[in-house]
Write a structure and sequence with these properties.
Rossmann fold; 10 strands; 11 helices; single chain; alpha/beta; ten-stranded mixed β-sheet; 288 residues
């Protein structure tokens, strides 16, 4: 599944968490891990670049060895440490485009912290622009994921998210939960002929319809042995609330919906879930 994993590494504690996640996943999938660090473009620091590079190389080597010791000697098969000099945002995206990894791993903090994470930061641009799955990690590394929440909208993109879920079912202990939230966009999507004056019982009808669609989805993907959850209200709020209640350790989130990719990422569901989810989030940039 994942043969090449890319991790931007910034020397912070959260950056190290992301690195350890990449190592964990690289070991499980037998993937190579590409570690990329960006040095600042500063003439006064140029003479120290070699010293800094050497220190980073040592830090990465120690982290990889520590992983092997924690996992009974099963170290990472291969990793490649690369450096760039200049603007981190541009260089990281350029490197992702050039290397074409199967997965990008980033942490919620790091360069400038979570609050700035969705205010034009480097990490936001990675999630927005990378044309590959991005794992945004919060908790400490562990494998496998035990409880995976999959928000669904019954579109073709739901099928791609469930295909990804199937790849993560590495044991019987992995639990999947399909969730659909009935919200005002759903009312408009499912009943365009009603216009503005919606019948008072429309929401109830939609909830019944969504329940039937969930049953069909569960039956179609019976190998996941998934449970089902349905809610009404704000999509992002309900997803985050359910992840908290169920103690999910991963949300699989396709970054496309009825309203289109740009709207979804610029101030709606994906942004809100990534900002407030209590667990890691795997975003899937799906082609329209």
């Amino acid at each position: 599944m994942f043969k090449k994993i890319f991790i931007p590494y910034d020397l912070s504690k959260e950056g190290e968490k992301g690195l350890r996640w990449a190592i964990y996943l690289g070991q499980h999938f037998g993937a190579s891990v590409q570690i990329f660090h960006v040095l600042p473009q500063d003439k006064e620091l140029e003479e120290k670049y070699q010293e800094v590079r050497k220190q980073i190389e040592q830090d990465v080597e120690l982290t990889v060895k520590a992983y092997g010791q924690e996992n009974q000697g099963q170290g990472l098969q291969a990793y490649d440490l690369r450096f760039g000099v200049g603007d981190p945002q541009k260089l990281i995206l350029s490197e992702i485009k050039e290397q074409k990894p199967d997965l990008v791993v980033v942490s919620t903090h790091g360069w400038t912290g979570l609050k700035h994470f969705f205010l034009g930061s480097k990490t936001e641009h990675i999630v927005r622009e990378a044309k590959t799955p991005v794992l945004v990690v919060r908790q400490a590394p562990h494998w496998p994921f035990k409880k995976i929440l999959i928000p669904v909208d019954f579109s073709d993109f739901t099928e791609q998210a469930l295909l990804m879920a199937a790849h993560l079912k590495v044991s019987k202990q992995v639990e999947f939960e399909l969730m659909h939230v009935v919200s005002m966009p759903d009312l408009i999507h499912y009943a365009p002929d009603y216009g503005v004056a919606l019948p008072p019982d429309l929401q109830g009808d939609l909830e019944k319809s969504a329940r039937r669609d969930l049953e069909k989805l569960k039956a179609k993907h019976v190998s996941l042995e998934a449970t089902m959850t349905q809610a009404t209200g704000s999509v992002a709020d309900q997803i985050c609330q359910r992840a908290q209640e169920a103690q999910s350790d991963l949300i699989i989130l396709p970054t496309h919906g009825h309203e289109g990719l740009e709207r979804l990422l610029s101030g709606s569901v994906a942004e809100q879930v990534l900002r407030y989810a209590p667990c890691s989030v795997l975003t899937l940039r799906l082609n329209v």
